[in-house]
Every structure is written in structure tokens, then in C-alpha cells.
């Protein structure tokens, strides 16, 4: 109303309306103008939807129905011309105003055709009483004009007067006072009559106040709005008007935004109450009173109409307040979002406006986390929570999703992407000391058309949020993979672990066995780890491992496990690989423990194979044929040949098992698993995919190598076979040492090394042959015992292979028993 031209137009319109009314010249033009200014300056709006098309069609139908088709066509033509020159939304207020003025004039014209008759009934003449009409009723208008009325005797008005008198007799309080008290109650204030009762938790009239029951019921219904207002205002006061220490732990930014949105809605509610209070100052007319009383009065029934729509909004706010009590952050936003699923456009508009304010802090946290990796969550409201951990555990344990703080409008899949994107940024900053993620985040925001500043996203823009998160995750994860593979050479380190910890470098393993074998045969408490480290360096320099990168070779170290009193060096020796940051995210302590378990198994298998190779060197045919016992008489020669044959058969059987089992482990298990892992490593799009691929690789090796939890029974049988083979090696060394001593003594080139050996050669050639016969007999018994134990353990091992769940173990069974020899032997038993 600051435009002077607008004020002049309003003034002219008011004067014309007053002058057009019958008897309007005596009305207060100034008061009417002030009322018009106050009405136009308020934020009141008609309780109808601003639908211009529907209103225009209604006007055209009304004109056509009233017999004015030409006016209807003229109106349609004018409306189309105005619509072409003006914005569509600017014509509705004009049409509504003109339609309202037209309706008001029609109502005034209809009322002027039926004037009120005199209150007192006209006296009836004797002729009228006798059934004959009177010549002219006294009080009738002169001039012979007959007035038509629906109530010629004013029966309706007389009844209203009598009803009013009865109501006044039953009422102690005027309706204006009740209206004033109801308005007070709507503001949470006790009035003179209407007060808040804590017992019933409601506003009510005391029983001592005498009012009609219908009036009391209407007052209670209107005061429900005050009870809802108290609930909403109490929630706001509890969350804002508290000490800063408590607010930091219980309120949070989302709750503060919710309270701010509620206060903004209440401000419109306060403005409405101010207008209604101004209306309440006008007197309420009674039936039959002078029609000059202002029509802007406020009765209880009119107040019910005015407060109908605010009551709906206040009831909704009270429901939201009850649903959000005790919640914070994402949980509060999700609870409010759950009430927004409604088909009413007005309801949806209200909830959308409210959620836009409430979710603003939450979307700002998402933006900061996805584009900057910052977890700005002082009040623990975000659905992602961080916890202090070491650098090696940052990816797995540093950040987690709080499911109870995840709002319903963010899906779990999108939440996981949001989590991984922020984790990738923090992993690059903390573990990789890299800042290239910033350019990737900026490019992602520019690609999807969003801004990196605050307020770029809000409620209702979930599709834009998801597009930003997907693009940012793709670019940042790609940069992270480039850093892991190119800068930190992840694949080279995996290959180094395969070659040295999984014993894939054959020449290095063989030379290491040769140089550390004598040392590891000593008791564990006598072995120096520094000496073993020197032997490891010797094995590296003597094999092709010397050509590897020095950074990789420096990471290979000797580790001595905990040992007891009876342990040998073979039982405690192991190798370890120093995986530093950021590689220790993949090669964690538990993963390296699993690698150590696999190394010990493979090292034991290599030791068994190395022992059988030593047996073969001892039993070389040229050494046996040149033995003097082979040239002796028939008896001793037959004993010697029989023992050698048993030994050779047992060796061949053991060698067959170890060779095939070692082939299965080194090729069917390690190489196949590595090939699959290498493919998945190259196709990994993020660090989670890389971790999953490595976990599958390690699990595959463990399960196929019989090291899993479900293979403990067959693993014990396998270790029993290894122990029997090592026992066979120990016996073979002792047997052939004695044979060589007797052989050399027979040639006269050896001196006895012990008392037992000296007893063999004392007594001449006959005694030596007798001792040799005793030795061969003892060897035969030991060989039979070892062969029996070996056969029993091997049968148990083979019988358990078909019961293993991994399919590759069936191929191991086929390789071990490809001639079905063991199956036939087991069947015959």
C-alpha cells in the first residue's frame, strides 16, 4: 500500500461502493477506508484455491444460466484478451474481487425486495375474525401496493426474539466475552472464564459458569487449538530455551532448524489472531437488532470457521512434535518425512516447506562429506560416525553407518556410496598423503551441474544428490585406484608375497632350504635370528631374487615364532613381509597371520620334499651296487637286496604322494587362485572391490589347501603323513650311515666313530657280516612298521578327500589314485 496511485484507486472504489448502497451516504467513509487498508495489508487469503480457469468458467455458466448469453460471450472474449497480455497468475485476484462484488450486490438487491414488517402483529377486525377479509389492514402501505412476504406475521422474527431471551436467561457470560477468552486460549493464555485444567489437560469452562451445553461444547472444540498450540510452543521452548551444555548433547542443528520452521509457521498464526482480535471488538448483533451494525463481528461460530484451517496445520505440527520428541539428526528428519506422504496438495506444500528447513543441515553434512571428506557433526546427528583408529584400520573401522540415524528418503545403497566416497577422500588424505581428490570432487560437481558451496542441495532433490554422489564416487575411486597401483605398486607387492611367502620362487626356496637346513635342525632356543637373517640374505643373492626391486627385498624378514623346550628350528622358522602404509589396509595383521599359516604349511611341505630328495641321494643306485654287501654270499646279499627293495618301494610311494600333492598345491591352488585374483584386481573399481578380491584369493588358498576350519580332521592325517616321511628320512640316514661305516671298515679305511660302531668291527669279517645281518633284519622290521603306519594314514587321508566340500579336492584324489590302486586295496580290506 505504499503506492499513492493504488491508495487513490482504493479510496475511489470505497466511495463508489458506499454511494451505491441505499442510504450509504450516512456511513463513515473514513472507517470503511481504514478497514479496506487493514484488510489489503494483511496476509489473509480466501479459503479457496486460486484456480483462474475454474473461476472464469463459473462466471460464464452463471451469466448463461441467468439468461445473459451475450454477456457470457463478451466476458469470455475479454478474459482471453487479458490472459494473452498478462501472466496467468495475475488475473485470478481481479476475477475473484469482481465476482465477490457482484455476489454482494445481488444479495443486497434480494434483501431490499423483502423489507422487515412491523414487529407487532396487526389487529384483526371483526370481519376478519368472522372469516371475511378486512378492507385494508391497518399499518399497510398506502397507495394500494400489496407487499409480498414469506412471513407476513413475522413469526420467524418473534421466535428468534423468544429464543434469544431464553438463551440470555440461561447464560451468565456474554458471547463476546467467550470469544475473547477463546482467543486468549488459542495463544496459550488463561482467560477470565476459559482456563487450562491440568487435571484434564485441556482448556474448559468451569462448571460454575452457566452456559448452554451447545455453547460449552463449541468452546471446548475451539480451545483444542490452544491445547495444540501449548504442545508446539512447549516443544520449541524445551529445545531452544535451555543451557548450551545440554543443547549440545540433546538438540542439534536439525532440531534447531525444526524449531525455527515451527516458529515461522506460528508467526503467521499470530498474525491471524491479531486480525481476529480486531474483529472481536465489534459488537455481536442479536436477532431483530438494527441492520446498521458492522458485519465484521466475531461470534463463536464465525470463529470456528476462521480457525478451521489453522487447526489443521496446528494439529499436524503437534503430531510432528510428538513423533520427534527424543529424536535428533537424521532420525528426526526421517520421522518428519514419514508424515509427508499425503495426497492433499495443501498438506504436501506445508510439509515440503517444513522439510526444506529441517533437512538443510543434514544435506549440508552430506555435501561436506562427499566433496571434502569432512565429518562436521558436532551433535552426532549424521548417519555416518567416525571413531579414532590406527591408519591401517581407517578404511575398515574408521567410519561406520548408524542405521538409526539414516532418514527414509536416503536408501541404504545411496548411504553406502556416500560412506565410501568420504572414506576414499580421508584414506587419500591420511594414508596416501595425496590431494588429487580435490580436483576430482570439483569436476564431479561441475559435471552434474551442482555447486560445491553451501545450500546447493536440499529436500526433494534426491535425484540430484544421488547423481552427485555417484559421479564423485566414480572419479575419486578412480583416482584412489591409480594411486594404489601406480604410486604404491600394489600388484608388485602382491606378487612378491606370492613368490617369497607362498614359496613361488623355486630357486630361492631350494637354496634357502639348503643353507638353513643344518641350522634349523638345532634346538630352537639355540638358533640366532640374526644368523638366519644373514642366511636369508645369502639365499637372495644366490638366486634370481637378487634382481628384484630393493624396496621389495628389504621388506622380507625372518620371524621366529614362540617355541617350547622341545621345538626345533624347523618348527619356529618363518618369513614375514613388511606391508607399510597404505598397503597395510589390505595386508592387515589378521591377513598376515593367515599368510603366516599358509607359509608354515608350504614350508613343511617343502621340507618333506627336501627330505625325500635327501633320501634319494643316499639311495643312489651306483652307491648301492658298489656296496661290498651286494657282492657277498647269497644269504647276506638276499637280505641286503630285500631291505633295499622295501626301502625303494616305500620311497617311491612317498615320493608319488608328495610330488602330486605339491603339484596340486603349487599349480591347482596357488597359480589358479593368483590368476583369478589378478583379473579381479585389474577390474576393481574401488578399494572395497580390491579388498573383496584379495579376501576371496586368500580364502580360496586356505580352503583348497585343507587349512580351513572344516578340514581340520583331514589336515591332521596329512601332517601325520608328513611326520612319517620325516621319520623315514631320519631312519634312512641312520641306516645308510651304519651301512657305509661297515662298508668302509670292510675296506679298512674307517675308524669307528662310537662304541657301538667299534663293537661291530671287533671280531673280524665273520662278526661284521653277522652284525650286518642283524642290521638288515632290524631295518626290515622298521621299514615294515613305517610302511604300515604310512599306508594306514594314507588310506585315512584318501578316504576323507571325497567328503571335502571344495570341488578341486576331487582332482587331487584323481591324481593320487589315478590307477585306482588304493581304491582296490581299500576294497579288499
TrEMBL record:
Residues 492-822 form the Gamma tubulin complex component C-terminal domain. Keywords: Cytoplasm, Cytoskeleton, Microtubule. Residues 122-144 have a biased composition (Low complexity). GO terms for biological process: cytoplasmic microtubule organization; meiotic cell cycle; microtubule nucleation; mitotic cell cycle; spindle assembly. It is found in: Cytoplasm, Cytoskeleton. It comes from the Eukaryota. GO terms for molecular function: gamma-tubulin binding; microtubule minus-end binding. Residues 179-485 form the Gamma tubulin complex component protein N-terminal domain. This is Gamma-tubulin complex component. It comes from Zizania palustris.
Amino acid at each position: 500500500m505504499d503506492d499513492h496511485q493504488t491508495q487513490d484507486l482504493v479510496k475511489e472504489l470505497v466511495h463508489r461502493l458506499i454511494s451505491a448502497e441505499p442510504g450509504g451516504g450516512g456511513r463513515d467513509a473514513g472507517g470503511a477506508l481504514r478497514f479496506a487498508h487493514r484488510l489489503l495489508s494483511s496476509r489473509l487469503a480466501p479459503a479457496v484455491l486460486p484456480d483462474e480457469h475454474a473461476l472464469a468458467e463459473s462466471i460464464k455458466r452463471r451469466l448463461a444460466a441467468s439468461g445473459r448469453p451475450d454477456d457470457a460471450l463478451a466476458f469470455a472474449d475479454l478474459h482471453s484478451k487479458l490472459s494473452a497480455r498478462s501472466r496467468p497468475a495475475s488475473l485470478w485476484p481481479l476475477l475473484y474481487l469482481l465476482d465477490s462484488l457482484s455476489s454482494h450486490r445481488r444479495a443486497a438487491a434480494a434483501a431490499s425486495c423483502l423489507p422487515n414488517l412491523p414487529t407487532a402483529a396487526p389487529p384483526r377486525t371483526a370481519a376478519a375474525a368472522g372469516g371475511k377479509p378486512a378492507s385494508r389492514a391497518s399499518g399497510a402501505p398506502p397507495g394500494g401496493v400489496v407487499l409480498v412476504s414469506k412471513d407476513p406475521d413475522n413469526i420467524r422474527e418473534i421466535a428468534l426474539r423468544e429464543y434469544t431471551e431464553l438463551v440470555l436467561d440461561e447464560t451468565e457470560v456474554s458471547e463476546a466475552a467467550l470469544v475473547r477468552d477463546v482467543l486468549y486460549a488459542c495463544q496459550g493464555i488463561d482467560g477470565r472464564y476459559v482456563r487450562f485444567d491440568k487435571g484434564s489437560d485441556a482448556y474448559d469452562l468451569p462448571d460454575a459458569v452457566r452456559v448452554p451445553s451447545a455453547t460449552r461444547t463449541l468452546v471446548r472444540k475451539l480451545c483444542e487449538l490452544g491445547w495444540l498450540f501449548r504442545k508446539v510452543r512447549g516443544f520449541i521452548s524445551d529445545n531452544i530455551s535451555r543451557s548450551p551444555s545440554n543443547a549440545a548433547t540433546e538438540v542439534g542443528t536439525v532440531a534447531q532448524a525444526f524449531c525455527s520452521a515451527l516458529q515461522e509457521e506460528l508467526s503467521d498464526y499470530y498474525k491471524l489472531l491479531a486480525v481476529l482480535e480486531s474483529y472481536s471488538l465489534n459488537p455481536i448483533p442479536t436477532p431483530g437488532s438494527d441492520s446498521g451494525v458492522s458485519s465484521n463481528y466475531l461470534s463463536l461460530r464465525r470463529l470456528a470457521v476462521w480457525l478451521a484451517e489453522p487447526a489443521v496445520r496446528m494439529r499436524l505440527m503437534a503430531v510432528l512434535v510428538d513423533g520427534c520428541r527424543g529424536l535428533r539428526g537424521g532420525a528426526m528428519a526421517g520421522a518428519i518425512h514419514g508424515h509427508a506422504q499425503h495426497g492433499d496438495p495443501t498438506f504436501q506444500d506445508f510439509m515440503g516447506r517444513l522439510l526444506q528447513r529441517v533437512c538443510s543441515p543434514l544435506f549440508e553434512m552430506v555435501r561436506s562429506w562427499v566433496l571434502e571428506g569432512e565429518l562436521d557433526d558436532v551433535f552426532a546427528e549424521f548417519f555416518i560416525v567416525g571413531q579414532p583408529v590406527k591408519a591401517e584400520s581407517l578404511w575398515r573401522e574408521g567410519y561406520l553407518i548408524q542405521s538409526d540415524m539414516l532418514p527414509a528418503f536416503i536408501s541404504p545403497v545411496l548411504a553406502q556410496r556416500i560412506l565410501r566416497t568420504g572414506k576414499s577422500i580421508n584414506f587419500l588424505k591420511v594414508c596416501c598423503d595425496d590431494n588429487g581428490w580435490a580436483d576430482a570432487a570439483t569436476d564431479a560437481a561441475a559435471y552434474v551441474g551442482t555447486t560445491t558451496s553451501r545450500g546447493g542441495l536440499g529436500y526433494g532433490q534426491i535425484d540430484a544428490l544421488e547423481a552427485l554422489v555417484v559421479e564423485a564416487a566414480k572419479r575419486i575411486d578412480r583416482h584412489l585406484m591409480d594411486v594404489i597401483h601406480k604410486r604404491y605398486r600394489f600388484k608388485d607387492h602382491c606378487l612378491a608375497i606370492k613368490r617369497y611367502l607362498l614359496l613361488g620362487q623355486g630357486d630361492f626356496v631350494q637354496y634357502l632350504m639348503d643353507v638353513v637346513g643344518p641350522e634349523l635342525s638345532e634346538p630352537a632356543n639355540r638358533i640366532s635370528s640374526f644368523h638366519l637373517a644373514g642366511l636369508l640374505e645369502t639365499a637372495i643373492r644366490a638366486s634370481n631374487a637378487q634382481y628384484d626391486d630393493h624396496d621389495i627385498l628389504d621388506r622380507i624378514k625372518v620371524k621366529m615364532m614362540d617355541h617350547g623346550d622341545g621345538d626345533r628350528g624347523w618348527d619356529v622358522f618363518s618369513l614375514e613381509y613388511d606391508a607399510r602404509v597404505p598397503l597395510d589396509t589390505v595386508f592387515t595383521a589378521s591377513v598376515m597371520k593367515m599368510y603366516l599359516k599358509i607359509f608354515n604349511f608350504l614350508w613343511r611341505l617343502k621340507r618333506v620334499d627336501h627330505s625325500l630328495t635327501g633320501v634319494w641321494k643316499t639311495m643312489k643306485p651306483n652307491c648301492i651296487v658298489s656296496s661290498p654287501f651286494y657282492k657277498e654270499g647269497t644269504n647276506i646279499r638276499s637280505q641286503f637286496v630285500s631291505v633295499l627293495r622295501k626301502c625303494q618301494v616305500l620311497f617311491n610311494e612317498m615320493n608319488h604322494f608328495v610330488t602330486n600333492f605339491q603339484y596340486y598345491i603349487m599349480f591347482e591352488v596357488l597359480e589358479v587362485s593368483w590368476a583369478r585374483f589378478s583379473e579381479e584386481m585389474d577390474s576393481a573399481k574401488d578399494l572395497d572391490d580390491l579388498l573383496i578380491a584379495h579376501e576371496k584369493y586368500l580364502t580360496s588358498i586356505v580352503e583348497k589347501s585343507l587349512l580351513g576350519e572344516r578340514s581340520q580332521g583331514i589336515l591332521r592325517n596329512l601332517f601325520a603323513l608328513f611326520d612319517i616321511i620325516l621319520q623315514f628320512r631320519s631312519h634312512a640316514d641312520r641306516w645308510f650311515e651304519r651301512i657305509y661305516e661297515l662298508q668302509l671298515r670292510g675296506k679298512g679305511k674307517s675308524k669307528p666313530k662310537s662304541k657301538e660302531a667299534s663293537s661291530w668291527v671287533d671280531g673280524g669279517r665273520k662278526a661284521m657280516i653277522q652284525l650286518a645281518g642283524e642290521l638288515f633284519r632290524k631295518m626290515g622290521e622298521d621299514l615294515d612298521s613305517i610302511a604300515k603306519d604310512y599306508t594306514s594314514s594314507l588310506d585315512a587321508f584318501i578316504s576323507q578327500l571325497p567328503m571335502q566340500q571344495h570341488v578341486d579336492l576331487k582332482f587331487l584324489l584323481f591324481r593320487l589314485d589315478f590307477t585306482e590302486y588304493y581304491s582296490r586295496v581299500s576294497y579288499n580290506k
